[in-house]
Sequence to fold (1040 residues):
Amino acid sequence: MRERSWWGWGWTDQAVEGRELAELRAQVGAFLPLSGEVLPVPPVPALAPPRLAPPPGVDARADDAPRAAHTHGKAYRDVIRNLRGELTHPPDFVWYPRDVAAIERAMEFAARNGAALIPYGGGTSVVGGVEYRGADRPVIALDMSRMDATLEVDPTSLAVRVQGGILGPALEDRLRPYGLTLRHFPQSFEFSTVGGWLATRAGGHFATGDTRIDDLVESIQIVTPSGVAESERVPSSGAGPAPDRLWLGSEGALGVITSAWLRVRRRPTFKLGAAASFSSYQDGVLATREIVQSGLQPANCRLLDPLESMLGAGGVDGASRLILGFESADHPVDHALARALEICRDHGGVVDEEATMRAAAGGPDADPTTGGTTAGRWRETFLRAPYLRDGLARLGVIVETFETSCTWSSFEQLHAAVIDAVAPAVATCRFTHVYPDGPAPYFTVYASGRPGGEVEQWDAIKARGSQAVLDNGGTITHHHAVGRDHAPWYRPSPVHQSALRAVKHTLDPHRILNPGVLAL
Amino acid sequence: MRERSWWGWGWTDQAVEGRELAELRAQVGAFLPLSGEVLPVPPVPALAPPRLAPPPGVDARADDAPRAAHTHGKAYRDVIRNLRGELTHPPDFVWYPRDVAAIERAMEFAARNGAALIPYGGGTSVVGGVEYRGADRPVIALDMSRMDATLEVDPTSLAVRVQGGILGPALEDRLRPYGLTLRHFPQSFEFSTVGGWLATRAGGHFATGDTRIDDLVESIQIVTPSGVAESERVPSSGAGPAPDRLWLGSEGALGVITSAWLRVRRRPTFKLGAAASFSSYQDGVLATREIVQSGLQPANCRLLDPLESMLGAGGVDGASRLILGFESADHPVDHALARALEICRDHGGVVDEEATMRAAAGGPDADPTTGGTTAGRWRETFLRAPYLRDGLARLGVIVETFETSCTWSSFEQLHAAVIDAVAPAVATCRFTHVYPDGPAPYFTVYASGRPGGEVEQWDAIKARGSQAVLDNGGTITHHHAVGRDHAPWYRPSPVHQSALRAVKHTLDPHRILNPGVLAL
Fold:
């Protein structure tokens, strides 16, 4: 049986090792000075004994391995701390509920014992979303992995009801026999859960249109310390403030999402992809804007800036690159692609005929659930990226991402300001999602780490980048959530924050649930 | 200068009178027995003197005409009560704020005087949304009509910032020089405001895709008794529960929406429409479902059941009728329409070639802001309907609408149950909006009124219809809001309701704002 890494991303057998690590070292050493230190894969450290034991007869584990694995999320700063054995606030034990009653019991137990209860889906947070920080109190990780059933499929209405702990691949496996798919593929797809997607408002497969898990949910069941809430299952209702919108983005601070009805779709049979290059980045931005404002709704519309194009896609010409994809389960998408490429050419874009041919045979962004030999280079890189990140971390490279969204009017200035702010670290940018009113830029940052000082070094880079984002009209997060790492730059209006605090106080009066996220 | 009707819909000079009224009487008398009574257009009744006077120096009116006009919304039960002079809870005066400071002053004044403050946009609520009901206390109508400015246009990002009191036509007038449009055309378009649309989550022009004003808003400024909230203006953010979603659907109970950034689009230049008939209603439903699940995204996709087809569109063959429209500002829509009609034919639909030709020349659902001789019959009927409703009310006909949404799986049973439940009243049904997971059915009900007993008679019909909606998987409202009329069937989960009540208590501790809506 495959084993999950306690300290880094994904499966242990997928970690970058041996020759691959040496090659990575040579590649990155060409543009970043490396200290030469290579951090070893760390054993599970010996943790302080639990302050609180699980009650008898529940599914729980209090040994060091699961406690260590549930201490941090999967951000760079989590990985580097794991590599260096810095586990300051491990949970005292991990509770694995199998039903709503067990969650209610865990909430009562936590309240009675003054413990914090951290809802834990796949644990892939990159913003400190599952890591307790704060005053000394017992901490329980509530691991939802046993609540992973598919409860109901409605092929007529194209919807499925699943439990919150189901992982992406399992969900797709259960939909495949019906010819259906959720088509929600965050980078964490393999290791993250429906409940986690909903609690953090995850961004998904589609670059335009229904981009966010919010758009794919019909109704939610959530367990709060004050009772279970369940919204009516209808396509759309205008009855009061939308109830699910209070839970979407609540990051485990208001309740635990136990099940949801999700909108699914027929698996696409018509797929086309293409790529175009722009010698001027500004022209690439203009073309991308016109495509998304045209209403063509590409499934994929990913503009890489010149540096991203070079480091992420092997471009050597200093050009920007726009990756396009169209898909449908009902009708050919040739006309849509042709019109999008016409827009590219109108803005000086040069269509990469070879990439377009390749894409036609499988797509540069092919379905990660089916894969296959025709899937392009980018998809491999996309899913492999977190493993490479871990390898780079071991080699002493600081490598991390952050993302935002802003209007088209403010993008150019934001892009320049962010790249300027993080220097001397190097930042590249791509659009993960685009809207008629603006893009969602995603930055990847590289810097040489100072051995032992990487966390502080990264935190300083991140602080400068975040401030540049806010100063230039961006939001602190488009789809990574707030967690604890973004708290200093999360600035809801005071009126809205007082409303959220009132909800928190009413639903979680003992403040047991994921204390500290969302500044709640 | 044209005058607004105090008792009924719209402009006084558009009311159904004289020969038109006689013709209407003959038409409807053919299928409904009429008492023969014709209620006269009522003068403004003499109201009880105000219990509270406006403070000196503010823009306010305390005479009977504006007080009477601000007593009710524009539902059938409002019109019939106005016709019969039954104005039980008129506001004591109407306050016309010109800025945020005036609204804050009105809130302080209301709190100090124990008054209820009813935010009033265009006053077109059909669910008792602007009518005070409850214990004896002073009531102030806060009429937003003076806050109707366009503050900023961002043609690059396709967005506009307007004040909450702006009416539909004024907004479109200000966008037209830029070649832009909001394309949000509720039936009340001419007389309703942006603030009202946002507060009630209005349904708009598009039958599929971005159907609701919720989808068109970037950020909201709202004045609450505890301060002013304003959300960041970005295309999309994943930072916590979406702040605007708390205000969308708050129906004036949490604050007054003073301005908003809205997403606009280029005015469509490619438009095609078509109609198809189905001898089996079930086949029409299947075809409609397949079209919306295909991802073709028609702007218009309105299935009329056989009776609606007869009464609303002059059909005499007992068939159901599907009205389709496609539009784009960027590219031809021929392929999309052709594929949709292919789906119709696959399900036994007969395409009405003549209507399709007519539609190509202007559309059965042409833009209500431009009109013109080519606009089809349906658009005229749509905008004329509320005036006809008032004429029918005067003739003793009960005529009213209600709407819901449900999954495709539950629609057939819901449709039958509602029509059965309202009998002996006659109900027709059309889809106003359709989603991949289900339609939004809109019912129109006709019955002979018992003179003097129409309100009770309608309330009984509505109660039976509403219960049938809830019993068969529908929501109590898709886009008419909850107000006070829907309160008995508005059933958020108790946990969600306690969260909303906590927000209400925090933001409006003196309970001055629109007390009674949303059961708050």
Notes: Residues 361-375 of chain A have pLDDT under 50 and may be disordered. Residues 340 and 493 of chain A are 39 Å apart (CA to CA). Chain A has 15 helices and 18 strands. The longest strand of chain A covers residues 438-448.
